[in-house]
């Protein structure tokens, strides 16, 4: 899908054709759409395809007529009826007259610009627009990190009473998300530093404050991801030990009950033998004597196990 937007005096509107100072938004484009934009904007089609590869690394490539900036952005997907947080590439191509963005799916990072919810946003101010995208990207990372932190706390509360592995598996998925986020944020930081040194992208004094905000937000996201990852890793180790200990307690209890119940079973087996001379076999009170002795032995064994902390 291709959408073309341009900022006018009365706001940002969608237009039908590519004009100078416009923004071309490509969301999961088809081969025909890629070829169309490639020819219209004089961009190598391989560079347009690059953001459509989920494994593509963040980088900057400078060509004669345009510059490709590839960064990772956070997104949410559903697996097994549960939300999972991953990163996907976003391509920003700065051409002479237009700015092109390419992504596999519709994302929160660009949606706010398309809906006109970003202040001081102009499609023709390409450098500022790029910094605004990177700033929005860092804030979305922070939002998802806070959500991951809240979800991990919910799982921790369940783990206090759980002996199953499902909660640990959910924590593992959250930890994987944090690893993805940390790796992507570090790569984005490198891209940001390189971008500022590229002469093809002009720097303006009025963008200095925004640039500082982008750097601060990105670093804060990296620090939060590292902190949450460390906490989550320690929590997983602790609760893995707790679950293992809970299972050991259950098994110990069941083993002790089995040993105690083996006493009346063993006595009944002995007296169930069809042989002569069994003690109490001739007594009219033999049955009650055997039952009484069995109960005494059983309670004595249970008392001993109780004293040893096995019950």
TrEMBL record:
InterPro entries: CorA-like (IPR047199), CorA_cytoplasmic_dom (IPR045861), CorA_TM1_TM2 (IPR045863), MgTranspt_CorA/ZnTranspt_ZntB (IPR002523)
Localization per record: Membrane
Keyword Chloroplast set for record: no
Highest taxon in the source lineage: Bacteria
Pfam families: CorA (PF01544)
Membrane topology qualifier: Multi-pass membrane protein
Keyword Membrane: yes
GO molecular function, a single term: metal ion transmembrane transporter activity
Keyword set, alphabetical order: Membrane, Transmembrane, Transmembrane helix
GO cellular component: membrane
Protein family: Belongs to the CorA metal ion transporter (MIT) (TC 1.A.35) family.
Name this protein carries in UniProt: Magnesium transporter
Recorded name of the encoding gene: corA
